Amino acid sequence: MGYPVVKGVSYVLAHTPDLVRYGSKPVREIPKEPDLLEKIKSHLRSYEDAVAYPAHQAFIGAIRPESLWEIEQPWFQHPLEGAQRFGPFGEIMPQSEFYGLMKVVDEFDLVQLDENFSAKVRPALENHPLFKDEDLERLGTGVPLQQLQKEIAGGALPIYENAELVGCFLNGHDEDENLNAAILMENLACKASGVLALRHLLTSFGPGPAAIDYVMNCGEEGVGDRYQRGAGNLAKAMAEKAGCVNCSGADIKAFCCAPVHTMVLAASLVQAGVFKEVAVVGGGALAKLGMKMRGHLAKSIPIMEDVLGAFAVVVGQDDGLNPRIRLDVVGKHEVAASSSQQAIMESLVFKPLDRVGLKITDIEKYATEMHNPEITEPAGSGNTPRGNYRMIGGLAVMHKLLTPGDLDHFVHTHGMPGFSPTQGHIPSALPFLGHARNRMLKGDLRNAMFLGKGSLFLAKMTKLSDGMSFILERNGG
Amino acid sequence: MLQGKKVICIGERDGVPAPAIAECIRTAGAQPVLALTQCFV
Q1: A373 sits in which H/E element
Q2: For chain B, does the N or the C end have fewer beta carbons within 10 angstroms?
């Protein structure tokens, strides 16, 4: 039986150190501590450091995630020699170009850029392979510095490049807090990074933007106004700027678990014959910039939550070549299931495998929450991927497939180190999808399970958590 | 040790969630008065 396939995957990072101050944690903490903003600024990384950071190079596909195990930690002190901006899956965009991109995808003139800054950004975007003449037209020529200062005095948010004021972000409504500058900036940053991921995807892989029937956004940003907070369809907004002229789209909301839910839904739409080509996209989470900065400042290490992450995937009909999404082995964390880790892993891993006669050890690679431990451990949040791998291995021990002494070997062979920025939904399993696809096309990997978890309880509507899983397998094997 | 005690349960999504802690302390004769799970990533 044929199953939908993954035709391509792209990943991008935008290095935005001067937006860290607008992350949720810094916004709450800066007013409490007079010199905190200066401390934050003194712990930000250069663009060159962000490009050479080994985990970022794994994210854009230049190195295998497992190779991070061979690099001495901390990775930020061991930059990758010869690291490049562009990798097999996408790129690491510098801040100035990202500001330009935000302007390009801004339909309501919310982003105002200084005229000198615009003139500096223009040639960089002209040289970028994914920007066209109409984008440069939308970039415009900028505004005088005095106008920026006037807008900021009236409530606009200043936009900086190092110490220099280079723009501002306007409020979208006088009274509606859902359309204030801070929230619209989050939403537009998500849109811009998602558009960049889609453009990389549809230029390098798959059938081209015009052939996409449907775009599904799995990002967590609550796009909407006072009467429909979180109403969304950022998917269609992204599709418009990625040239997907023949598609419609929708957002799928399920906290960090949304990417896995969305992949299953996209594959189901293809399998049912409703659409032939579906793009799944997740944009960056500005709110999560600087989230763990207290731990980083306390240990005098760089603030590593200085990048926005985004990805995009094309799911299409079986072509006999690309790896298949096994829709008969989907796992879900049921409402009636306990919220213990054991119960979650039983639902996501053991039950779906058991249904088709597979064992936990039959899956060659597991992709769980791929948070970079170098970001989380200094803040006391532990090593999320390792914990999850040990839990899956523990389940295998319970089912007498392994002994407790085999656990470390299981983690090493069936797992990988975390290599994704802590961008909410972005680290959730899918960072490995591009690597898995490449390995399966080369015949180096037979199958992989992708499992995500969602913290539904954070929204105070239920105490439940959530989880979902699917298996990708080599086509023809 | 926990018999008759009132307990605040703070759990973690990728560790031990609050409902699981609450379930455990109930079996030890305690009463969970608050059970909150947090997500640290």
Answers
A1: helix A373-376
A2: N
| Total number of domains constituting chain A | 1
Tokens of A401: 């497939």
| CB contact (8 A) between residue B37 and residue A384 | no
B chain contacts of residue A372, beta-carbon cutoff 8 Å: none
Residues of chain A above pLDDT 90, percent: 97
- Write out the H or E segment, with its range, that includes residue A198: helix A181-204
Identify whether A121 is part of a domain. Answer: no
As a whole number of angstroms, the longest Cα–Cα distance in chain A is 71
Q: What ipTM score was computed for the predicted complex, to two decimals?
A: 0.75
Dist CA A184 CA A287 (whole Å): 11
Of B14, B20, B36, the CB nearest to A384: B14
Q: Using the beta-carbon criterion (under 8 Å), do A341 and B14 form an inter-chain contact? A: yes
- Considering only CA atoms, give the Rg of chain A: 22
Let me know if A162 is exposed, middle or buried by CB neighbors in 10 A (0-12, 13-18, 19+). exposed
Query: Which of B16, B36, B41 comes nearest A369 by C-beta?
Result: B41
**Residue B17 has what pLDDT?**
85
pLDDT band with cut points at 50, 70 and 90 for residue A477:
low
Does A380 reside within a domain?
yes
For residue B34, what is the nearest residue in chain A, using CA coordinates?
A463
Q: Is the peptide bond preceding residue A74 cis, with omega within 30 degrees of 0?
A: yes
**One-letter identity of residue A319:** D
Closest-CA residue to A176 (of A221, A222, A225): A225
Q: CA nearest A290: which of A65, A42, A44?
A: A44
Furthest C-alpha separation in chain B = 34
Q: How far is CA A8 from CA A5, A208, A277, A278, A281, in A?
A: 9, 11, 11, 11, 12
Both tokens assigned to B29? 């004769």
Task: Band the pLDDT of A326: cuts 50, 70, 90.
Answer: very high
> CA of A203: how far to CAs of A125, A222, A427, A435, B19, in Å?
16, 28, 23, 18, 47
Domains of chain B: which residue ranges?
A: 6-38
Interface of A with B (CB under 8 A): 256, 338-341, 369, 371, 376, 379-382, 384, 387-388, 422, 427, 453, 455, 457-458, 463, 465
- Computed over every residue of chain A, the mean pLDDT equals 97
C-alpha dihedral sign at A252, A472, A437, A410:
positive
Task: Report pLDDT digits (tens) over A197-239.
Answer: 999 999 998 789 999 999 999 999 999 999 999 999 999 999 9
Contact B13, A465 (CB under 8 A): yes
Mean pLDDT on A174-181: 97
CATH number of the domain enclosing A387: 3.40.47
DSSP strand pairing (A5-15 vs A307-316): antiparallel
